[in-house]
Amino acid sequence: MSDLVALHDGYAADYDAQVQAYDCHIADLLFGLCYEFTRPGQRLLDAGIGTGLSARLFARAGLTIYGMDFSPVMLDICGEKGFAAELKQHDLSQIPWPYPAGGFECVVCCGVLHFIPDLDGIFGETARVLGDGGSFAFTTRLPTAAEVELPYERQIVGGFEIFSHAPAHVETLLTQHAFMRRKLQKCFVGDDLFLLWIAAKH
Fold first, then answer.
1. What angle do CA 65, 90, 186 make, to 5 degrees?
2. pLDDT in tens, 141-195
3. What domain range is 186 assigned to?
4. pLDDT confidence of residue 81
5. Number of compact structural domains in the chain
6. I need a labelling partner for 174 at 20 to 30 A (CA). Which of 5, 80, 141, 168 fits?
């Protein structure tokens, strides 16, 4: 895990500039899809907050931002932007998360889950920390194959393990953890196709 943290720390300083140069607007799109289900004063947890590109949009809309990430360098950059109420260094694959049950009205996980093979624990923790009716906004990478026998495809891209999760498997996880899908949108990031999901906790 320390090697993976070092990989993410290594590009943290240039991350915001890289996103802008790449014309990647997936955070803006996820925010737009989720906006109608949020309101000022709500507490939002950004799971894998990184440098805060996703969370800052919700902060501007009046939500109170909490964030966790396993990269200390990314957290430092995010903290310097000054919009987060609290930031914690924590690997979101490590269960349980350091937050109380029902503590948030919204959880966002943008541009993160394609680094993680098994999403079951993450969906379970999201359900635990969300109050009833809370929103879960997240992205997954779409597999290249039309039919995926396993829950995900695995590739090595730029030294990173990348996991493309089968939509049917994601739908199953949502159901198992008492979520109802509200919206689903496809989005290209470069040549890769991602899915943007908005779900609500029953």
1. 65
2. 999 876 677 899 999 988 889 999 999 999 999 999 999 999 999 999 988 999 9
3. 2-201
4. 97
5. 1
6. 5
